[in-house]
Amino acid sequence: MSTPTSEALEAAKMNPERSLRTGQGSALRGILVNSALGGAKLAAGILGHSYALIADAAESFGDVMGSCVTFIGLRLAAEPADQTHPAGHGRAETLASIITALALCVVGGLIFWEAAATLSVPRQAPNPLTLLVLVPVILIKEWMFHWMRARGKKIGSLAVIADAWHQRSDVVTSVAALVGIIVAWIGGSAWSHADSWAAMLASVWLTGTGLWLLGPGLHEIMEGSVDPALLQFILESSRSCPGIRDIDKVWVRKLGMRLMIDMHIEVDPDISVLEGHRLAHEVKAKLQAELPQVRDVMVHIEPYDPERAKRPYRIQSGG
Question: What does pTM read for this prediction?
Answer without folding.
Answer: 0.76
